[in-house]
Every structure is written in structure tokens, then in C-alpha cells.
Amino acid sequence: MKYFNFKPGVMNALDMHKLFNLAKKNIFSLPAINCIDTNSVNSVLFASKKKRTISIIQFSFSSAIFFGGFFYKKNSIKSAIYGSILAANYINDAAKYYNVPVILHTDHCNKENLPWIDGLLDHYNHIGKSLFTSHMIDLSNCSLVENIDICSVYLKKFSKFNINLEIELGCTGGEEDGLDNTNINHDKLYTSPIDVFYAYNKLIKINKFFTIAASFGNIHGVYNKNNIKMRPLILYKSQKFIKEKLNINNNKLLNFVFHGGSGTKESIIKESINYGIVKVNLDTDIQWHYWEGVLKYYLNNKYFLLSQIGNPEGKNKPNKKFYDPRSWLFFSKKNVIDYLFYIFNILNCNNLY
User: pLDDT tens digits for 287-299?
Assistant: First the structure.
């Protein structure tokens, strides 16, 4: 069913929130895929076009650096800014070529890396427009008050360019882009509805263009999660608490984000969507399928990949067509695309336009 009239290219926050409202009404969510290069970007755009869905392409700090070619400068703010600008310009043009809308987002900017976002804002001032739909400020390791105070400052700055702010409440376990919460106290993995209300009540006074990653036992990466129970009912209770507190007739006022979607049971994801999850982050599973495509190709063609000349068909037979990067990258991308088709079905986000 067609839900959305769109323009191809990178969407702004106003259109994104219109889409989120449709998602809550029609019980679907959008996949947020961490990308690192044009191959991963093109895989997302191709899959989105085939299934007529709208995906969220996102870059972490180190992924932005990698996209710009500065993979050896892991902590360079300037490289992250440059890589983000390159990625955004490429994606906007590529999305128009594929004739698909896309949401563009930066992921998990912690307090130390805030100059990354500041640098992008400076660039937006210079060119007179935003390149990204949304930026995440992750201050989950700060106190609630400091977290929301700093996020409020950025939401005001974002208002000038119609940019969404994503915040995190509570902490997501596991490890993501150098932020290691693998040994965190498990109590911090669960957000209180009171904290959600505090954040909402502060931010809504500025504007409505924000999303909340409220933790409910989420873990980055794929681990043995038997010792940590996911509690998506926290999302429901938060929606209910705010509805009653503000005396409004809206069961899904909040736009929630699901961090650590990789390795999560399908039933948990679907339950969460019912409670207002509009964005599901996928990184580790994408990384695995990216690699798995290469692994399968290698195992199927091993004896044609051990040397430039010589294979089971003859000692002087060339192997160029097998080790040509276009050959094995094709299977890498195809493996990712097939996995995305599977994810789109779980999220119920096919045929949006």
C-alpha cells in the first residue's frame, strides 16, 4: 500500500516525522543501516528501490572517517567532518539516481566527539542548508540532567536547518564504535518512564523534531544475551505515563529508536514496533552479511584464488576474473541485499510508495 508521496534524495526532518507518524499508525518501522563506503550505501539504495521502502543510512564517527579514505586516522575530528560531507553529497546524488527517498543520520556522537557535529553545523552555515536529516547525540554516560541540557542546546541549533535530534536514555550494552559497555551494570540497561518524561518535557518546549533511544535491555552486537532480558514493555509504560501525565489522547506520542537490533528475536522487534519504535538500528548483522558474502565466494572458488595463474583447469590458466574485486564484491553486496529483504519483511516496511 502506498503511504507516502516523496521526492528522491535525502529527506528533511519534517518529512521524516510525517513518515514516523504513518509508521506508528500503520505498525511498521524503518531499518537504519550503518554504512562505511559506497558499496554498502549502494546495497541499501538498491534493496530499498526493489522493495519500495525508505531506509535510514547512518554513519558512526569512525565510519565517516573510513568513507573519506582516512581509515588510519581513527580519532580525527576533521577527517570525520570531511568524510561525512563526502558521504552526504554522494548519497543525495545516488538516491536521486536510484529514484528513492532516504533518511541520512549520524550515529552515536559522544561528548568527546561533539566537535564533529559542530563542524558539520559550521559547514551547513557556510552552504546555507543541512546535508543530513538527523544527528544523534549520545550522552548516555552523563547524568540525565547534563544529557538533556546539552541535547537541548543542540536541538536549538538544529532548528535552523530542520534537523532531527536523536538522544539516548539509559545505556545500550555491548560495544559500538569504541564505546564499550560490555561490563556495564545491568540496571543501567533499562530506562525509567520518569526519565523519558523528563527528557520529552524539556525537549518539546524547543520543538518536536527529536527521537528517543530509550534502553530496554538493548545490546550492541551479537552476544550470548541469555543473562539480559529485553523488556519492550518499558516503551509501552513510557508512552502510557506521558499520555496520562499530559492528559492527551495519543497512545504513541513518542518516536522511539531500537538500538542493537542485530541478533534480536523477531518477536521482540515486532512487539517493540507496536509500542512506537519507528527506527531499528542494524550494524553487526550487516557487517556479518557483508563478510559472509565474500566468505561464501572464497569457499566456492578457493582454488582459483590462491595465485594469479594456475587452477584446477590448468597450471597456466589465469584467475583474473575470480580475484577481480568486482566479482567478490558483487557477492558481498548480494548477500547484504538478501538480508535487507528479510529485515524489510520483519519491519513491515515494504511498498511505502
Answer: 999 999 999 999 9
